[in-house]
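--- STAGE predict ---
source: upstream dedup step, 1 unique chain passed
mode: sequence only
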Amino acid sequence: MVNIIKKDILSEDIVLGLSEIFKALGDPTRLKIIFMLSKGSLCVCDIAELLNMSQSAISHQLRVLRNLRLVKYRKEGKLAIYSLDDDHVLQLFNQGLEHVIHE
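--- STAGE serialize ---
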């Protein structure tokens, strides 16, 4: 078994990247943002209103999520409209949620 695992061992870069994603998802505010974006696209101002936080604070959290490719945005005039980057993010969130709900 050890030899099989040795062949498939994850590289340090992959482990660090995965660790960064889980670290980002370990923050309650960022998890709330992921949840909100799982329901649909939102602008920074909408997220700030829903979380009762400043737009600056939300922008900071979104930057962290964007740098990890968990969320993306598109410009509509002066507004930045955020959404989940892809289905993998939604699956990761939903599986974690399912695990917590059915403990």
